[in-house]
Design goal:
It is a single chain. The protein is of the alpha/beta class. The chain contains 17 helices and 22 strands. α3 crosses α7. The N and C termini lie far apart (76 Å).
Length: 591
């Protein structure tokens, strides 16, 4: 046997070598990422303190309506003033994007992957710098920036690089019995110039995410960034433009515009925009739809949520409690899929409330780039103008019987009096009749409600008009799955929170006033394409004939009608015998 193995070894090695050589010859060439450098703004460095502290921070400049005032919401320190994009500049940028897209639409998937690989490598190599820029502009912590800005972007880049071509390749379809002599397929073609109007809560990911999908689908893209995070936008734009440029493509494919409502209206109302993705509130989403309807521009709307977590008494509390703490405290709960309603089964309700009270009292707020190490759990909020509304929602709940156990008000930070902080809040004994259960808070407010059984939980969850994300916690997997699938929401997670978005193969979006359409996953990528139905002859010698009996001018309408009637019977009858009889009648009518 040993001798036989020795004799066979050269043959085995030769076969293996041949297989490897064949694989290398057949494999598509891979275009590698191209390194580039881009320096982050000096203001993003920890401890930077050259800007003045504003007494009443705001984004408008009283005597200069053409400028946006940028400041760090964690400290109130001025970062600078940037010009708002003019309406003429909006039109010019859209025109440049249109011109650049003509050539980009002809690129191969591998060329597009190279751009994404280049961007991906830059993101991984510059995580700290990216996080610091995001922290400075939005007041979040470094951990929250890593999870919400970098990790999510890396996940989207990696999924698109690995799966984008498969999703957008021509898709064969069954032509059916009557058209068996045809080839049928769906061809996914670029729409042209697409737009994304994105929110301020994750300035890096919310702007780069739509760019990734738009570029891979063969489009150019116009991003309308929020005026509340205008300071960081040039850095993100330069990052993508550099990736395009070093790979030999036009940087004009990506255009950023920033400004107030007039700039957003100019984008959504432009007849040169071929698709709009909007991330924001239901109220503004309706305005976007109205503007888009003038040109019948298709839209994808992600309009926030009032996400619930249903916690059954048999849940693994050691796992559940920390997850739900992060669902509320991460990014000061400025998350569209943050958990804003926690429903706890009555048997565990009191224990759960006490444990969350203990944890919430220990949460520390502050400025991660300026305070001492290990002193900050929760960052600042971007919009201080919402504080009176949050306090009013809490007051309404207390007046109707809820208990505010922790917080409940804006927080005056002793080190950062101009910072924008809301005290981490625990509101318990909440019921569906309270306003806070039907209005998105977008703040670090943990709302806890009690339920008895599955039906009670579902009734209380569905009292809200929102339907974005959701969670169900239980050790009984069958029950957890059953309840999760009954929730009126676009997304749900069993024994977890928000992880569906890290699974970039899944679509992201909601129902109800949380919007419609999807981004992420195959559905999101294809939404940025024209799904063109395409047929062609399977064989060059078999073509569609027009029988003389129905050729114009039709000589005998009644006979022609009977002929077409038998075509239907022949092609679509349930039994072969009926089809055979219809075929015989067709032959007779053709004589």
């Amino acid at each position: 046997m040993d001798g036989l193995n020795c004799e066979a070894l050269p043959v085995v090695l030769a076969v293996m070598a041949g297989g490897i050589a064949l694989y290398l010859m057949m494999r598509k060439p891979t275009l590698r990422a191209i390194p580039f450098e881009l320096k982050a703004p000096a203001e993003s460095q920890p401890g930077w303190c050259k800007g003045e502290i504003l007494d009443a921070p705001g984004i408008t400049v009283s005597d200069r309506p053409d400028l946006i005032q940028c400041f760090d919401p964690a400290t109130g320190r001025l970062l600078g003033r940037v010009p708002a994009t003019t309406l003429a500049e909006v039109d010019a940028k859209i025109t440049r994007a249109r011109h650049a897209q003509t050539a980009w639409a002809q690129t191969t998937f591998e060329q597009r992957r190279q751009v994404l690989r280049t961007l991906h490598e830059f993101v991984l190599a510059n995580q700290r710098e990216i996080c610091q820029v995001a922290c400075r502009d939005s007041g979040k912590t470094m951990i929250d920036a890593t999870l919400g800005e970098v990790l999510t972007t890396a996940a989207k880049l990696q999924w698109t690089i690995k799966n984008g071509e498969r999703v957008l390749c021509d898709e064969k379809r069954d032509p059916g019995f009557m058209m068996m002599y045809k080839r049928a397929r769906v061809v996914y073609q670029p729409r042209g110039v697409v737009a994304a109007l994105v929110s301020w809560n994750y300035p890096f990911h919310n702007t780069i995410g739509p760019v990734i999908s738009a570029l891979f689908a063969g489009n150019s893209v116009v991003v309308k960034a929020s005026e509340h995070v205008a300071w960081s936008m040039p850095y993100w734009e330069q990052m993508v433009r550099r990736a395009l440029d070093v790979c030999g493509h036009s940087p004009e494919l990506v255009q950023f515009v920033t400004g107030f409502a007039d700039v957003g209206s100019a984008v959504t109302g432009s007849p040169e925009i071929d698709h709009i993705t909007f991330i924001g509130s239901p109220e503004v989403g309706k305005l976007v739809m109205r503007a888009a309807s003038a040109n019948l521009t298709p839209v994808t709307l992600e309009l926030g949520g009032k996400d619930c977590a249903v916690v059954f008494a048999d849940s693994d509390m050691a796992q559940c409690v920390p997850v739900l703490m992060r669902s509320v405290i991460q990014n000061a709960s400025q998350n569209c899929i943050g958990i804003e309603r926690i429903l706890v089964q009555d048997a565990k309700y009191e224990w759960f409330v006490k444990e969350m009270e203990r944890r919430m009292r220990m949460v520390r707020v502050g400025a991660i780039l300026d305070d001492e190490p290990n002193q900050v759990d929760c960052g600042a909020m971007v919009l201080s103008a919402c504080f009176p509304r949050l306090e009013a929602l809490i007051a309404d709940a207390v007046a109707k019987g809820a208990r505010c156990v922790v917080g409940g008000h804006a927080y005056a930070h002793p080190r950062h009096p101009s910072g924008q902080y809301f005290a981490p809040t625990l509101l318990v004994d909440v019921t569906p009749d309270m306003d806070i259960t039907r209005n998105e808070t977008f703040g670090p407010i943990m709302v806890i409600m009690k339920f008895t059984d599955e039906q009670d939980a579902l009734a209380k969850v569905h009292a809200s008009p929102y339907g974005l994300g959701s969670s169900v916690f239980s050790s009984d997997r069958v029950r957890a799955r059953r309840v999760a699938l009954k929730l009126r929401a676009g997304m749900t997670n069993v024994n977890d929170f928000g992880v569906n978005y890290i699974c970039q193969s899944l679509p992201f979006g909601g129902v109800g006033i949380s919007g419609f359409g999807r981004f992420a996953g195959p559905e999101g990528l294809r939404a940025l394409c024209v799904e063109k139905a395409f047929t062609e002859d399977r064989f060059p010698f078999v073509k569609t004939p027009i029988p003389p009996i129905v050729d114009y001018p039709i000589m005998d309408s009644e006979k022609g009608y009977k002929f077409t009637q038998q075509i239907v019977a022949f092609a679509y009858s349930e039994s072969w015998w009926q089809s055979i009889k219809a075929g015989l009648r067709l032959g007779k009518l053709s004589m």
